[in-house]
Write a structure and sequence with these properties.
One of its GO terms (molecular function) is oxidoreductase activity, acting on the aldehyde or oxo group of donors, NAD or NADP as acceptor. Pfam families: Aldedh. Keywords: Oxidoreductase. There is one protein chain. The chain has 3 domains: about 240 residues, 3-Layer(aba) Sandwich (Aldehyde Dehydrogenase, Chain A, domain 1); about 190 residues, Aldehyde Dehydrogenase, Chain A, domain 2 (3-Layer(aba) Sandwich); about 280 residues, Aldehyde Dehydrogenase, Chain A, domain 1. The chain is about 40% helix and about 20% strand. It is built from 28 helices and 32 strands. The strands form 8 sheets. The chain has a 10-stranded mixed β-sheet with strand order 13-14-15-12-11-16-17-32-26-25, with helices on both faces. The protein has a 6-stranded mixed β-sheet with strand order 8-7-6-9-10-18, sandwiched between helices. A hairpin with a 2-residue loop joins β23 and β24. It starts with a helix and ends with a strand. The structure holds NADPH dihydro-nicotinamide-adenine-dinucleotide phosphate. NADPH dihydro-nicotinamide-adenine-dinucleotide phosphate binds next to α9, α10 and α13.
Length: about 775
């Protein structure tokens, strides 16, 4: 062949990576792998086959973890934890640093093993996965060093259960193990059944570099093994990455257990291309967004939304680019797209595409060899309701949908139950950042995609889960505030008193406060409120319908999220001033409820002080600029959660309610509050104070009535984004929250002194916000 022909063709010969070191290692474990528990490998038990997806051949056998195995691993982790947490941060840092160094030393081995086990191209495991694994251990060696200084009020959870998926096996291990160990926790981790090998290799590396026995335990197995870890009483915190369906199961399973829970779940991330985008860069962006790792990426840009004016041009260029992708042997250094992890997954992709075709979508595909491969695929003409537009396909399949205006783009982008990531392509910084603010996602890349770094938090909004991995937020998730205990006794049932045919009782009764107006309860019933010496009034008996109305009113008041911190501060100061003007009245109300006068006075003073405190914070709870490795300004913005349910403590009815409502409001959330069931009247007295304080209608809504019944309605409501609950029905409330995976914070009644210093902290603000990480190129 002539050189000129080669230059025209640009065809490559095969360039396979050698796999002998991995074959030697696998040969040494031919008898099958056991688990890694308490610093050593157990003998192999009942094993299952691990296959190479590119060939279908068996490469190893690993043990199916039983509940006894999980018990042993948790016991080892428990035993090792106090000593590990008791090491100086510097000593833990040296262990993490050693892990990073050893990962680097074994980088080629780990990359080849990952590609053999998972099917991903060696170029990706070598240049993306493994370097990021090392980066995570280095970064978190730094956190181990600094943790005592940077998080002085927090402590490690104890034993962390970690369940990871198959798409980035070693990287997901690193994302979970590094922060857990840095914070002083010990770990029991289950890798995915399809891809357990790099976790086992990592366990060997950990032993080789002297990580103390029991600090890291790996138990292999399937979903049942994962469920045994999640349900184990000895596990204090659970971290999961995987499907939204399993995430919901785990939310229900851990409800009421007091376990910490972070969930990194699915996505259907938009990739938005504006008319002024650099089209070639955006086309290359799509290659990284959906064809990286065969599209088996939770934050894959699987929905391209493109400005109508450039749709045809963009689609043609993307098709031309797709035609040049090489699909095949993962170990070949020229391969762009490797094997799908398992035939089950390949068939699932094929089924979804067939379903989309039947719904009228047009399918454009590249070529792929026989076997467990799927061709790169572009879909046009998929309707917004098509399965291809809504379901997480987890394959190399992207839809292209045109939009007319930026508002259309935002509406389409947010038309999903997920909220993991988004890419925005525009040469106009104003436009890009304006859209970044409006898209509901935990990670936004401007003129880029699939950028990850240990210094930046990663995680989702909505049904993409909660909690962040990486950065300061990720470290915070592996530590807890000191545990609090309180009373777990249920409140007595309420006796409904009819409002009467004329509604006479209702006219004398404090009503509900919904959408800025006082409203009669839908039930028409009231209930008697007792003070120390007998009945002191009547309160409206709120029900499901009233909560729904309140949520609707709160949803309409979305403008509150866009007010500036300064504006919110002014309003909260005004609230404090108006409350202060009526301090005597509130003191009298609390005294009538049975509170001693001195205590009542102090509670009212505390409530006023809270207004000032959170007004102060409203424009000061800043985000951060993360120091990521690439040339980006990575902005960690604190955003409100949306509509929050707040179910207040029984005691300290005024200060307790305001201690929860005010941080939520200061951060831009709207609130539907259920005040103390026993002492609701100081909350109903607040209506007039709220009305005179310029709080826009719908921003605060108050529904009195049966606490737990109303709390469960809030927990089940898909229009509620987060719920704070103080009471005894924590288990039910947490389980009910699984429907839309709202963030829930529950505590027992009496677990803190709400009128005292425990009733306020920065932690309340952190809980009232979610972090959006926006990557903006800065010399990239
Ligand atoms: P799963 O959510 O089922 O698996 C993730 C992990 O959870 C695996 O280790 C799995 O075990 C384990 N697991 C499964 N069931 C339970 C359970 N009841 N309790 C505790 N742990 C459990 O994802 P799949 O692998 O089945 O993939 C299905 C779909 O999920 C994909 O097509 C994709 O759409 C999505 N997915 C999303 C990921 C993400 O990063 N967001 C990652 C992976 C999948 P094992 O696999 O060993 O049986």
């Amino acid at each position: 062949m002539k050189i000129s022909e080669i230059m025209t063709d640009m065809d490559y010969g095969p360039a396979p990576e050698a796999q002998d070191i991995v074959q030697d290692w696998l040969g040494r474990h031919e008898a099958g792998f056991g688990h890694f528990i308490d610093g050593t490998f157990t003998g192999a038990g009942e094993t299952f086959a691990v296959t190479n997806p590119a060939t279908g051949g068996e490469i190893a056998r690993v043990t199916q973890g039983t509940t006894a195995d999980v018990d042993a691993a948790v016991a080892a982790a428990r035993k090792a934890q106090p000593k590990w947490a008791g090491l100086q941060g510097h000593q833990r840092a040296r262990h993490l640093y050693a892990l990073a160094r050893h990962v680097q030393q074994h980088a080629r081995f780990l990359a080849v093993l990952e590609s053999l086990d998972n099917g991903k191209p060696i170029r990706e495991s070598r240049d993306a996965d493994i370097p990021l694994v090392a980066r995570h251990f280095y970064h978190h060696a730094g956190w181990a060093e600094l943790v005592a200084e940077e998080f002085p009020d927090r402590q490690p959870w104890g034993v962390c259960g970690q369940i990871i998926p198959w798409n980035f096996p070693l990287l997901m291990l690193a994302w979970k193990v590094a922060p857990a160990l840095a914070a002083g926790n010990t770990v029991v981790l289950k890798p995915a059944e399809y891809t357990p090998l790099t976790a086992l290799a990592f366990a060997e590396i950990a032993a080789e570099c002297g990580l103390p026995a029991g600090v890291l335990n790996i138990v292999t197995g399937d979903g049942a093994t994962g469920a045994a870890i999640a349900g184990h009483d000895g596990v204090d915190k659970l971290a999961f990455t995987g499907s939204t369906e399993v995430g919901k199961i785990l939310r229900r399973q851990t409800a009421g257990s007091g376990k910490g829970l972070t969930l990194e779940l699915g996505g259907k991330s938009p990739f938005i291309v504006f008319e002024d985008a650099d089209l070639d860069a955006a086309v290359e962006g799509v290659v990284d967004a959906i064809w990286f790792n065969q599209g088996q990426v939770c934050c894959a840009g699987s929905r391209v939304l493109v400005a109508e004016a450039i749709e045809a041009r963009f689609t043609e260029r993307l098709k031309a680019r797709m035609a040049r992708l090489t699909v095949g042997n993962p170990l070949d250094k020229n391969t762009d797209i490797g094997a799908i992890v398992h035939p089950v997954q390949r068939d699932r992709i094929a089924e979804l595409v067939a379903q989309g075709r039947a719904e009228g979508a047009e399918i454009h595909q590249g070529a792929a060899p026989e076997g467990c491969f799927y061709p790169p695929t572009i879909i046009t003409n998929a309707q917004p309701a098509s399965v291809l537009s809504t379901e997480e396909i987890f394959g190399p399949v992207v839809t292209i949908t045109p939009f007319r205006t930026p508002d259309d783009a935002v509406a389409l982008a947010n038309n999903t139950r997920y909220g993991l990531a988004a890419s925005i392509w525009s040469e106009g910084i104003t436009q890009a950042l304006d859209i970044a603010r409006q898209v509901k996602a935990g990670v936004i890349w401007v003129n880029g995609t699939n950028l990850f770094d240990a210094a930046a938090g990663f995680g989702g909004y909505r049904e993409s889960g909660y909690g962040r991995e990486g950065g300061r937020e990720g470290m915070a998730a592996y530590m807890r505030s000191p545990a609090r205990t309180g009373q777990e006794t249920d409140l007595p049932a309420l006796d409904p008193v009819p409002g009467g045919p004329t509604g006479a009782a209702l006219d004398r009764t404090a009503k509900l406060f919904i959408g800025g107006k006082q409203a009669r309860p839908d039930s028409g019933y009231v209930y008697q409120v007792n003070g120390a010496k007998g009945p002191i009034g009547l309160a409206a008996l709120g029900s499901r319908k009233d909560i729904r109305n309140a949520v609707e009113a709160a949803a309409k008041a979305s403008g509150w999220a866009n007010t500036t911190g300064h504006q919110r501060a002014q309003i909260l100061y005004y609230l404090g001033e108006n409350l202060s003007a009526r301090a005597e009245e509130f003191t009298a109300r609390l005294t009538a409820s049975g509170t001693k006068e001195k205590t009542a006075r102090a509670e009212v003073e505390a409530a006023i002080a809270r207004c000032f405190r959170y007004a102060a914070w409203a424009d000061k709870f800043d985000g951060a600029v993360h120091n990521t490795v690439s040339g980006h300004v990575t902005l960690a913005m604190h955003e409100p959660l949306g509509v929050m349910g707040v179910v207040a403590p029984t005691e300290a009815p005024l200060a307790g309610l305001l201690s929860l409502m005010l941080p939520a409001l200061a951060m831009g959330n709207r609130v539907v509050a259920v005040p103390s069931q026993t002492h609701p009247l100081s909350a109903t007295d607040l209506y007039q104070v709220i009305e005179t304080s310029d709080i826009p209608a719908g921003v605060v809504n108050i529904v009195t009535g049966p606490r737990d019944e109303l709390a469960r309605v809030l927990a089940q409501h898909d229009g509620v984004d987060a719920l704070w609950y103080v009471g005894s029905a924590r288990k039910q409330v947490e389980a009910d929250s699984a429907g839309n995976l709202k963030q829930v914070w529950t505590e027992a009644d009496g677990a803190r002194d709400w009128a005292g210093s425990e009733g306020q902290s920065r932690d309340f603000l952190a809980r009232a916000t979610q972090v959006k990480n926006i990557w903006v190129p800065y010399g990239a």
